[in-house]
Amino acid sequence: MYQSPRGTRDVLPEDAAVWRYVEERAAAEARRFGYGEIRTPTFEDAGLFLRGVGAGTDIVEKEIYRFQDKGGSDLALRPEATASVVRAYLEHGLASRPQPVKLYSLLSVFRYDRPQAGRYREFRQFNVEAIGDADPLADAEVVAILWRFLEGLGLRNLTVFLNSIGDAVCRPGFIRALVAHYEPRKAEICPDCSRRLDTNPLRLLDCKNARCQPIADAAPRTVDYLCPDCQRHFDALRGYLQAMELPYELTPRLVRGLDYYTRTVFEVVPPTAGAQSTLGGGGRYDGLAEQLGGKPTPGVGFAAGLDRIILNLEEQGCPLPAPDAPDVFFAPLGDEAKRQAAALADRVRRQGAAALVGMGDRSMKARLRQAAASGARWAVIVGEDELREEVATVKDLRDGEQQRVPFDELPGRLAAAASEAAS
Question: What is the pTM (predicted TM-score) of this model?
């Protein structure tokens, strides 16, 4: 029997209400800050990610789902969203609009990685980008969106980790110092770090291998090598965060895992420790548009993993919506009663309430068991007596109280009662 591929999962109806709630809260938070929705393709030219994300990153070297289609095009499932959004910004001439262009997405992302708690090979992200302005206020704003979103869901004891990794002016000096720190210790570091020392030295600071931690902890700090422009930008960002009363913790080893980042990098983490605990993170990527063939265009954004956020909501006992349930369950007995129930249910739905009609040939006892299992508030019994008198028996499934309601009054009364119960 077929099963879902490793690293993927099905979201069943009893869980879908929580997913919809979290995604709706994410979209509402982005819109409150003036961001509009963008939807990009699930797959792109593979070169977009090789150039944008970086050929030396784990995403490109180990995790990307890359394939050739029947026309011979080299394509890849998106392993992240920012490169696609910047490509769309350039392709559609969004630089002609008032800057920055503020965009958000709710989308699936794909990475071939080892599945574990909160990490899947197909996962959902909330993505936010502000493209076209280098103002550090834009950096503070995207941090604020992520923080307010998570705070609004009820998550507590969160921490913002913050760092600046400089730019093309000052980062080369830091990289030289970092390499000089690691070279004498090359025999002590893990194989991945040994490779990164030659291909992507900044990622040395992001290693999670225990044997590398003391060396990384003693490494030079990016903030000690910032040029005057990067230092002013970082100081202004911190001032905006303080003005908005957004708490943060300076984290000199924070670098993130993508090559396009410049200056600001940040992550939001819960109290749960561990390499996969980060709920969301991002930073500034002022050189990405140029790497993709466009004009110099500053940008900043973040991605938040919804799978991991929902896991933390459950762990912290945050209030979550109940599974979807109908307002009314029609329990007909016989074919003629089913026809009448179908007509009445249709009228109930048109007036805004949710209604189910029992199908198949079952006894009334079985119908009422179905009604209770559905989670409906009311069961509407339609049998021979009800058909003859054109009056339904409405049973409140919470307290067992019953009343008789004429067919012509039933849809309006049920819709009104459902509306009142929901308010």
Answer: 0.90
